[in-house]
Amino acid sequence: MPGVFYWLVKAVLSPFLHLVFRPWTEGTDNVPREGAVILAGNHLSFADHFFGALPLPRKVISLGKAEYFTGRGLKGLLSKAFFKGVGTVPIDRSGGKASEAALRTGLRVLREGHVLGIYPEGTRSPDGRLYKGKTGVARLALEARVPVIPWAMVNTFEMMPPGRPLPKLGIRPGVRYGKPLDFSRYYGMEEDRLVLRAVTDEIMYALMELSGQEYVDKYAASAKVEMARAARRRQPPPTPEA
Fold first, then answer.
1. Of 67, 72, 176, 180, whose CB is crowded by the most CB atoms within 10 A?
2. Three-state SS at 79
3. Which residues does 158 contact at the CB level (< 8 Å), separation at least 6?
4. Mind listing the domains of the chain with CATH numbers?
C-alpha cells in the first residue's frame, strides 16, 4: 500500500495545484476520518487522478490497469512512479478470472480499513456525460459491508478532456463528496444480479445529482466504440490516384 511516497507526492503537488488551478471542494465532512469506505466517482478526465483525493486527509487507494506499471523506458518509469504516488494498485482488467482478482484486491484494501476509490463507469467519459455503472462497486460494498460515498468531479472534462495532454488554465476543477449511501438492507445478497444492478444504479443516480451530468443508460466503453465507428463513417473516401 502507498506509504511515505504517497504523502510526499501529495505534499509536492498540493500547493502547486492550489496555486495554479484554485480547486474547490464540497462535502469533505461526509468522508469518515477512519474505517473502510468506498469512494465511487464519475470519471471525466485524467485530471481526476490529481484533484479527486487532494482535499482529503486520508489516503485514497484506487485500482488501476496494470499497463500503468509495465511501460518501458523513462515514460514507463514516470508512469509507474506517478500512479504509485497517487495510491493506485495495479490490476488485470482483461475480464474473467482477472475481474475476480481485482475484486479480491479491492476487498483486501477495504478489510485493511482503507479508503478505496472506484470509477464505476470503468473508463473516462468520452463526451462529459455520465454513463452506466458496472456492478463491481456493488459487489465490493455488499461483500465488505461498507458505506459508499458518491464522489463527483466537476469541470475536469472541460479542463482536460480525453486526448488533451495538458490542462487548460482558467477552469476551476471541483470535487463534491455526497452523503454516505447505506446498503446494509442488501447484505448477504451479493450474488443476486438484480440487487447488484439496483445498488449500482442508486450510486450512479447520486453521482448524477451531485455532478449535474446528463445520464446515458449505456456503458462508456460501448459509447466509445460507437463514436469511433461514426467518426470513421464521416471520413471522406480516399482520393484515387491519377
1. 176
2. helix
3. 128, 168, 171
4. 4-234 (3.40.1130.10)
